[in-house]
Amino acid sequence: MCGIVGIVGHAQVAPLIVDALKRLEYRGYDSAGVATIEHGELARRRAEGKLINLERRLKDEPLDGTIGIGHT
Description:
The protein has helices at residues 14-24, 51-60, and strands spanning 4-8, 31-38, 41-48, 67-71. It is an alpha+beta fold. The protein has one domain. The model has no long low-confidence stretch (mean pLDDT 94).
């Protein structure tokens, strides 16, 4: 199983996507990822394991896009 969420906003959406994925984490524990559109290009971050691993990666390598999708 998996959980998928998408957000279109006016500010950085990656933190909002991660918050939404926390509510869906029970649907998948093996990996998580977020992709956003930044300056017309797709930027993504992925992590194996629980969502906390993706949160750590995003802290080190933030995404600035205002349109994004995430999965767990």
